[in-house]
Amino acid sequence: MCGIVAYIGSKPALPILMKGLKRLEYRGYDSAGIGVLNSDSASIETVKVVGEIRGLDNKIKEAGTTQNSSLGISHTRWATHGEPTETNAHPHLSVGGKIAVVHNGIIENYAAIKKILLSEGVEFVSETDTEVIAHWVSRFYKGDLGEAVLEALKSLEGAFGLAIICRDEPDTLIGARRGSPMALGLGDDEIFLTSDISAVIEHTRKIVYLEDNDVVKVNRAGFTIQSIENRRTVSREMQQIESGLEIAQKGDFPHFMLKEIFEQPEALRNCTRGRLLLGDGNAKLAGLDSSLRELRSIDRIIITACGTSYYASMVGEYLIEEWAGIPVEVEYASEFRYRNPIIGTNTLVITVSQSGETADTLAALKEAKQKGATVLSICNVVGSTIARASDGGVYLHAGAEIGVASTKAFTAQVVVLSLIALLLGRQRRLSHAQGIEIANAINSLPNLVEQTLKLNDEVLAIANCYYNSTNFLYLGRHYNYPVAMEGALKLKEISYIHAEGYPAAEIKHGPIALIDENMPVVVVAPKDALFDKIVSNARAIKARGGKLIVVTTSDCSPIDEFADHIIHIPAANPALTPVIASVPLQLLAYHIAVLRGNDVDMPRNLTKSVMVE
Ligand code: F6R
Question: What is the pLDDT of residues 181-208, one digit of tens each?
Answer without folding.
Answer: 899 999 999 999 999 888 998 999 999 9
